[in-house]
Every structure is written in C-alpha cells, then in structure tokens.
Write the structure tokens for this entry.
Amino acid sequence: MKIFCVGRNYAKHAKELNNDVPSSPLIFMKPKTAILPNGLTFYYPEFSQNIHFEGEIVVRMNASIKSLEPKRVNKFITGVTVGIDFTARDIQDECKKNGHPWELAKSFDFSAALGDFVDMDLDELAESEIKVLKNKELVQHGFARDMMFDIPTVVSYISHRFTLHKGDLIYTGTPAGVGPVAKGDILELFLNDERLLVTDIK
Ligand code: ZN
C-alpha cells in the first residue's frame, strides 16, 4: 500500500509558510508504517521540538490503475475521509534550507493519522468542508473546492507516474491554519459535520 501526499495545495496555506504556489502538484510519499488509525494516541517523537498538525481530505483507490484521465477518476475512488499529515516543522525547515528530501520531516512512524471512511462521490466531496478542532477550538477549515489542483487532477497526475493499487491513499493537502501540537492536546477532524478522526497527543 502506498500513501501519496500533496504539498501546498491551498494558496492561503502556501502563503502562511512563505512558499511559492506550485505550477504542478507537489507530491511526496509516506510509507505504510506512517498510518495511525482513528482513536489511537500520537506519541510526540523525541527527534523534533516542533510537530505541526496538517488536517487533510484523504481519498482511497478502489482498483489498480495507471495513466487515468481526470474525468475517469471518480469511478476509481471508494471511500473518503480526513487525516493528519503530522510534520516535524523544525526538520522540514532544515531540509528545505539544504535542498534535502522531506522524508525525515514527513514520513516517520505514525505521521499519517487516518479517519474512518465514508462513501461520497467526488462532486459531493468538492463541496465539502474539512474542519480541525484542537482542544475543542476551531483551528483549521477549508473547502475541497479551494484546492489549487482538484482531486481528479491530482490522482490523474500521480497515476501517470506511479501505478496506483487498490487501497492506496492520497492525502490531498492542507488548508491554512496549521500549527503546533503539544502533549495533552486532542485533535478532532470533521468532514462536513461528521467527526471521522480523533487523536490525542502524549
Ligand atoms: Zn500536508
């Protein structure tokens, strides 16, 4: 199983981290050891002093496909949810400064919290809102329609470079409002008004 992630897919978030808006999707991967299922604790890793949450809409492939055109993507997605792309921002800043890859900052164990899946087609998803609450306070929200590269475009782009298999996941990027977590925090993620993911930090 593969996990793809999109960076800087909402213009406001790219700006809050002082990044340029990309001209094609910015793709990176996490290994399957990054998955943290809904309800489990995220243990703050000792190698970072600045772990950030990035709440994201996640879609799951339902078949093996390659070189899919955007208009055909809808048929090959079964299940959408929300997830957290946990990021060691201090390490990522070092990687960016040195022009190094991002895996040490993005792909460590349990860096991909994953909610429970619901059935929704991509037209409905495009009008859906993701919300992140930290300790019951709204810290992030965004609509799928505000993505710079919409989900059909992202999946098509990935599929022209990597064969996708049933069960592969795509984290579709984070809206503005990312921020640090601390031990004791509780993160709750909603898709529209449905709470699909809860993670506590220890
Ligand atoms: Zn992200």
Summary: The helical segments are 11-16, 89-98, 103-106, 122-126, 151-159. The CA atoms of residues 34 and 53 lie 14 Å apart. The chain has a mean pLDDT of 96. Residues 3-200 form a domain with the Fumarylacetoacetate hydrolase; domain 2 fold (CATH 3.90.850.10).
